[in-house]
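Interim report to the steering committee. The following record documents the input for Restriction endonuclease (343 residues).
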Amino acid sequence: MIPLATLYYLLCYAWQRLPVPAVLQATEATPFHRPLELLTQMLLHATRELLRTGLPRGYQTQEAELRELRGRIELAPSLGRGLLPQGRAVCTYDELSANQPLYQLVAGTLAALANHRAVPVALRRDLGHLRRRLPAEVVPLAPTAGIFAQLRHQRPASREAFLLHLCELIYQTALPEPADEGRGRFVDFRRDERLMARLFEQAVRNFYRREQRQYRVFAETIAWQAVAPQPQDLALLPTMLTDTTLESPARKIILDTKYYAAALRPRYDQQRLISPHLYQLYAYLQNVRSAAGQHLEGILLYPAATAAVDVHYTLGGHPVRIVTLDLHQPWPGIAADLLALVA
């Protein structure tokens, strides 16, 4: 499994936030053994930063019985309760408040982790203290899948999106589900290949977006160079979406990340490349359109888990490289290897 320090960098790049020296120093001062401890430290730091700058406030609709008119009078409940002869009325009005769903979610996550047996006592103490520092008006909200879907739909800004990603990963890997009667579902998500594949892909793409200026970096939808007797049949073809496309006037690189335990598989007592991965990249290269004079090439990138691989081919007239990246080395070495890969 990859070191937690490397995992921290991957999470930061995946969620488009620069690594924070304070979190790295805390990791070095008290070495973490499980991802939950790292995620907890990240949440503590992000929440402290939020409190330092002040929680943004937004308008929320309130309903209350008032003696002074405010906002809109709700006649039906006011008449039904006989309030008008008493000089009172039910009113709905908008009020600025920090009691927003995201901050309620952060408060709920802090509270849940403060009682989580897998979190070290010192961190639980910090969580409880920080929870009490949140404004009293922020009512904790227990995390649920529906809340995360609703907040993602609102497309929060960078800082808020980072908090949302962080709380969601904690919820997915460490907090009890509502039907579990408080039983935690803590797992070391570094063993979850699907989750790590998504994080690895996002981290690599965002690393190139931030750390180099030679290429435009994006995920590209490739149209099949195909014809059919019935044009509507073309809609049945599967979508081709690259993990990362790097493009400059002179070069276009299709880079596919594969978070697998090994870049090779045994077949008939011999190690072979993973054929579906190679077929997929080959299909991309045969169908993608490049500009005149643009050199097209492909890269398959794996984490180096069992053995290092670095092989070059020419497939369909295009250079292809299958290479592993050592995620156990210190991050400066990882960053240098990524940059050298497209230099």
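The first strand starts at residue 58 and ends at 66. The committee is asked to note this result when reviewing the revised timeline.
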